[in-house]
Amino acid sequence: SRLVQPGSVLVLAARSGDELRALQDELTASEAGRAGLKVRVAVADVGRTEGLEAIIRSSAEAFSENIDRVILINNAASLGDVSRFTRSFTDMAEVDSYLSLNVSSSLCLTARVLQAFPGRGGLRHTVVNVTSLCALQPFRSWVLYCTGKAAREMMFRVLAEEEPELRVLNYSPGPLDTEMQQEARSRTADPEVKIAFSDMKTRGQLLTCEESCAKLMKVLLEDGFSSGAHIDVYDV
Amino acid sequence: SRLVQPGSVLVLAARSGDELRALQDELTASEAGRAGLKVRVAVADVGRTEGLEAIIRSSAEAFSENIDRVILINNAASLGDVSRFTRSFTDMAEVDSYLSLNVSSSLCLTARVLQAFPGRGGLRHTVVNVTSLCALQPFRSWVLYCTGKAAREMMFRVLAEEEPELRVLNYSPGPLDTEMQQEARSRTADPEVKIAFSDMKTRGQLLTCEESCAKLMKVLLEDGFSSGAHIDVYDV
Q1: pLDDT tens-digit profile of B134-152?
Q2: CATH, residue A115
Q3: Which keywords does the record carry (chains A, B) (predicted)?
Q4: Residue A51 sits at the chain B interface (C-beta within 8 Å)
């Protein structure tokens, strides 16, 4: 809460309105909320054009002339079907749909935010891409996830090259104790990769979202990263 | 032609039937054709499921039990609109369509070929992805191309990890004196990148397709590359 500047607004976007509103209530009642943080929600599927529009609309309503920093965090992603190997992906519609949600949406949302809130003297932008080790290293039976993360990371590297005024960060949050990890442990086709995920869980090596987000906050506050860089939670 | 083994078949796929058939005639009349190479054509748009099916159908017709090596060369690609910067890509349909042609199609074609011609004792597969320096390095105003090439390269790296029996090569052919380079020189939005392409042309640094393909042939014949590796024409 000591970090909450007057006039700060958090716009949360997700598909589930109930969960979003519960989080909104929780944050509004928190120390940050009591310190003045406004929390807005956009019930939106980022995989659809209407979803991107809803996010921009909510953000525009929340925006004021006093705001001096826009931070966009591109976190939405899906794991894809990890229960099969690359040679089983013969269906264009399945791959198209995966890439649309995981790649196109983050490009188009980022572009729309940059257009909707153009930089001016006092307004700066930071764009975060939530990336993964999978953007850099291939993992067996994770072809969609690795491909999507590699694509996104390159996309944000191009953006960083194009716009030196922007701060662009590819942040790899580490293995988080979330539903996605549960899916990874239970559904991964490759036995070695599957066991590696199970072992991380049983050895207590998964990070909480709070731990990883605290590291992300540290990186953003110190603001010393090279724009476009890939920064891993374990490097912070 | 000294490399043409009896029973060798080349299946060429592209959208333009006239140009394909002209090439078929040229190759059939060439030294390789006279040495026994059969040339088949599949008029097909790899961006469409029917196109992939047409390629598999033509390949199945060409296949015989004597064949001991299937080589799939994933070359089809488009440049994307390089006349604009990342912040202009707000249209999901445009990005979806680009990724479908440039990423999904190569994944699904490769998967279909592997399924249609399963490896057996005497049958081995080599899969080539025509990649680019753009898969590794960001270039300003080339966001679609860089993103697509990074995605493809990771996809083939995953395939290589999954299937040790396969030979997977990411081959970067260098700057070729083709229509795509003409488009790059004339339409690239970023002035420095644009000039770099013009300079390559005026200094005679563009490679002919024949030069680059000869290097690719050398790599394939020597067969010493590490499966999944990125090999650049200048490293051969």
Answers
A1: 999 999 999 999 999 999 9
A2: 3.40.50.720
A3: Cytoplasm, NADP, Oxidoreductase
A4: no
